[in-house]
Amino acid sequence: MPTEKQKKFIVVVDQDKIEPDLARETVINYDPLNRAGKEGGFYIENEELHIDEEDVMEAHRMAIKKYPYEDAIKLVQLPHEEGEKMHQFSENSFRLYGLPVPEEGRVVGILGENGIGKSTALEILAGKIKPNLGDYENPPGWDKIQEKYRGTGLQEHFTKLANNEVDAAFKPQQVEAIPEAYDGQVKELLENARERLSVEEIAERLDIEHLLDRELDQLSGGELQRVAIASTLLKDRDIYMIDEPSSFLDVSQRLRVAREIRELGEDRAVMVVEHDLATLDLVADTIHIFYGDSGSYGMVSNSMTARNGINQYLEGMLPSHNLRFRDSEIKFDRTKRSQVEHNRTVFNYPSFSKDFGKGEFELETSEGELHEEEILAIFGENGLGKTVFAKMLAGAVKPDEGESPDIDISYKPQYIEPEDETVEEALRKHVNPENQSFKTRIAEPLKLEKYYEQNLQELSGGELQRVAVAICLARDAEVYLLDEPSAYLDVEARVELGKTLKRFARKTEKPLMVIDHDLLLLDYISDRGIVFQGEPGIQGKSSEPSRIGDAMNSFLEEVGITYRKDPDSGRPRSNKPDSQKDKEQRDKGEYYEQ
Q1: In whole angstroms, what is the distance from residue 153 CA to residue 305 CA?
Q2: Secondary structure (3-state) at 76
Q3: What topology is assigned to 340-559 in CATH?
Q4: What's the rounded Cα separation, in Å, for the pair 381 and 531?
Q5: DSSP-assigned letters across all residues of 106-158
Q6: Per-residue pLDDT tens for 271-326?
Q7: What SS3 string covers 322-361?
Q8: DSSP-derived secondary structure letter, 289
Q9: CA-CA distance, 563 to 560, in Å (whole number)?
Q10: Per-domain residue ranges for the chain?
Q11: pTM as predicted
């Protein structure tokens, strides 16, 4: 058991429920430090109740209980490493405590920041890693492991692993590496994977029929993602491990994938790691939260419903454990939209047209303008020309009609090809990393400094994404254009990205344009939005900029999905298709509840 010194607590006070005189009679009077005549106890200042964070200890619980108003004062334990180890790789290496439990006929969601043990847990459950219970020098046999977990939900699964009765199908996270492992056509890859259904059937369900005769190395990230999911779903296995299925997919594609995963989970054990909360909410029956210290140790919560799990994750609090695992709550407050359209116009862009030739893609875009401090969301299905529009704005693609504006635009591309250099070397091409403004506005919130000595080619997808965003924002430009900056980022990193972009726009008074498929991120950061519609791969057309709520409603109506506002967290939640709430909103034309 951890000692008192190992345990850490904080106090959360709802000042609206605090009556100073009553607090003096109860909490302050019964505070163990105050009663002992020591410094550091509860005190009243400016008619509010306070206690310094470093002085909080578990003994304060008794004083808090004396205050009669429920939930006015809470003593919350911060995470600390405790419990029985499931696995440790070597001395002073990452430790994992606990595992989620696979459930046949259920989709189990896994939610947590990167480096916290999610992939390790999947590999243990799939039989790729044998758990050593922390004894990496003398690993235990299966008999001891089964005995250790006798009477728990994991016992049956470990028994199957011991008898080699678990056959798992894996959908990898880094789908862009698939062409390096396999060559040939999509149809060949899927035929080799097929153990159930037919290639034609799964291709129709995931809308990849047009890709079957294509070479794998010719596919985009979104196309590779759907091929990887199709390959996984075609296998007939005991358990399915699906790691980040939404990356590079647009909203309608995510809905298709979610439907297939849910159908698979009706009679199979399915586990899904996902950072897009709207997709996870739609696909998961239950959720386990992973928390701890990234790269050091990871712990696993109990099983919760999808809604409760996501809301508790956003709150950063596990009530069942009386544990706070994040310093602050993640909120989606949509009531404070800025009025950027009243700010000075930075530049106007014309309408564009681009025809790539007979039988190829054709694009028409509407004119618009950007204002100081504005963040403009650009969204729509894949294949409708969002990236082409970005490149025409940046001057990388010449339009048939319309002139690219004569303005300096810093562009972060959708796909990042790392060069053979360190992160610091890459940054120094654009900015002095020691520049205080760069450090406080960009490097520190994106947590870049710990990667400075690493080679770009050694970084994970999420780490590389942060570097690319930093380089884009570090350039001296008049407008900043970021294409899919949330890809491979976990929820915490997406929130920090959102805060960084909002802070950058307000501090520099520069406008930003952001192309992304994470509607929660776009909803959180954007002032206005433009919507791309049309027929993917054939013809695309964009709207003029409009208020973000109106743009979101227009887009969701186009793709046929309704979103409601969660009453507790304020986050947008996708309605289950044909549910009562879905039908009510469709009837009112309210595809995006504001």
Answers
A1: 17
A2: strand
A3: Rossmann fold (3.40.50)
A4: 9
A5: EEEEEE--TTSSHHHHHHHHTTSS---TT-SSSPPPHHHHHHHTTTSHHHHHH
A6: 999 988 989 998 999 999 999 888 778 899 999 999 999 999 998 989 888 888 88
A7: CEECCCCCCCCCCCCCCCHHHCCEEEEECCEEEECCCCCC
A8: E
A9: 10
A10: 9-77, 85-320, 340-559
A11: 0.78
